[in-house]
Amino acid sequence: MSDRESGDEQSQAQNRGTGEEELASKTLQIQSKRFYLDVKQNRRGRFIKIAEVGAGGKKSRLLLAMSTAAEFRDHLTEFSEHYASLGPLNPDNLPEDGKLKSEVMTKENRRYYLDLKENQRGRFLRVSMTMPLSRQRSQVAIPAQGMIEIRDALTDLLNEFGTEDQELHDELPEPQSLKVENKMFYFDIGQNRRGTFMRISEVRANFRTAITIPERSWARFRDVLSEFADREPSTPAKDFAAQGAGGGGGGGGGGGNSN
Asked: What is the pTM of this model?
């Protein structure tokens, strides 16, 4: 099982306990770093989590409301254009504070600082998130060459899930789980712009897969399962034994003829 899959299962277990669901995810490899962009949903609405995993496994993350993610996407375009207009990096002539361009975003009680910087190793965009009355400061560092990739991935997610920070009006059913032999099945309900859906995930030691069923198809899906469940259980082992017994009798008759 990969680190991502293992981390996902732990995250899903935690999310179920807090009523938080993952609706979509994208993974990007930019130089030596991996970035995960996840659309998540809880009782307050949807948001995007951007997680950075460095070469040593160190993780950093940012949380963005959907409208803030859209604003961040637009800033990424501006920063990318500014980066493209710069000349080659000159290690002997670096800015005193390393900053080439800066912006600030504010959303309710969160403030985001965007700084395009350069040092001896190259140019990068540092995004920091702070909250009042909190000593915690979260930040990620995106290699300048990867800003377009992050922007395009964000655009895809925002096109699918929207940019508005509306709270969910429908109370979603609680997640369910079912253990069958060495497998776990998880039933999670989510929403996107196309409506409500159910995601059924099958998880075992080194394997995970999932299917998504739109709400309009739940009744038909249930009916098909009921048809199979109402059938008399088959007994292939007994049928095989009966066939074996019949074959044995035939063999015995053959032996009698030979005598």
From this structure: 0.59
